[in-house]
């Protein structure tokens, strides 16, 4: 107990930038572990198994990660501005932490309406990116989404874009194509470096 207290105190005694660095490194590592797990379950839902499932999971465990912090200041006329223009992420998946439970993320529905994604306290939004859309041969879509601003409150979100390592070719899953007998609707590139 005493050692634990000293360690915690040691952390709080560090200069601010050191604390920030440690916190960001820890956050990134946790996101990496989470992404590999989430991608594994997406693969399993597609019926991927054994060697290919291991390769998929491993490639996200060793992949490239980018963390972007978004800040949307409050705006007295929110209907006249947009926080983040409509786009689909090119990542494999994106993990989004919303700070402060202020709604802002919207997804374009099948019938072309913008639907607000309500923040879940302590939750993380998993957004599918184009690399997983290609891998699933279009079974799953990378949705168009945008961020709107709030009239009274500033909103902060942290997006972690998760990419597979270069060991994973970016194309429809071979096991999925074999199991469904469907033609690939995307071509295969040797790795995500070619995709970006
Ligand atoms: O802030 C948000 O809710 C969306 C962020 C986002 O889509 C992005 O950074 O790509
Ligand atoms: Fe996005």
UniProtKB/TrEMBL annotation:
Question: Which UniProt keywords are listed?
Answer: Iron, Metal-binding
Q: Which Gene3D superfamilies does the record match to this protein?
A: B-lactam Antibiotic, Isopenicillin N Synthase, Chain
Does Repeat show up as a keyword for this record?
A: no
Q: Does the keyword Acetylation apply?
A: no
**Which InterPro entries does the record associate with it?**
IPNS-like_FE2OG_OXY, IPNS-like_sf, Oxoglu/Fe-dep_dioxygenase_dom, Plant_2OG-oxidoreductases
Q: Domain Fe2OG dioxygenase: where?
A: 63-164
Q: Name one GO molecular function term.
A: metal ion binding
Q: Could you tell me what this protein is called? A: Fe2OG dioxygenase domain-containing protein
Q: Which organism is it from?
A: Eucalyptus grandis (Flooded gum)
């Amino acid at each position: 107990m005493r050692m634990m207290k000293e360690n915690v105190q040691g952390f709080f005694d560090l200069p601010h930038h050191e604390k920030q660095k440690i916190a960001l490194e820890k956050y990134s590592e946790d996101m990496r572990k989470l992404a590999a797990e989430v991608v594994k379950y997406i693969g399993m839902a597609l019926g991927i198994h054994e060697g290919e499932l291991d390769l998929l999971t491993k490639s996200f465990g060793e992949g490239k990660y980018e963390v972007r912090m978004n800040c949307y200041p409050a705006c007295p006329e929110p209907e006249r501005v947009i926080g983040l223009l409509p786009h689909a992420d090119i990542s494999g998946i994106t993990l989004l932490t919303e700070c402060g439970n202020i709604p802002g993320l919207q997804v374009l529905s099948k019938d072309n309406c913008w639907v607000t994604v309500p923040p879940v306290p302590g939750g993380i939004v998993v957004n599918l990116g184009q690399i997983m859309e290609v891998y699933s041969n279009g079974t799953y879509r990378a949705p168009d989404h945008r961020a709107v601003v709030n009239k009274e409150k500033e909103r902060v979100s942290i997006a972690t874009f998760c990419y597979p390592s270069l060991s994973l070719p970016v194309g429809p899953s071979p096991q999925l194509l074999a199991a469904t007998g469907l033609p690939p609707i995307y071509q295969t590139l040797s790795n995500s470096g070619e995709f970006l």
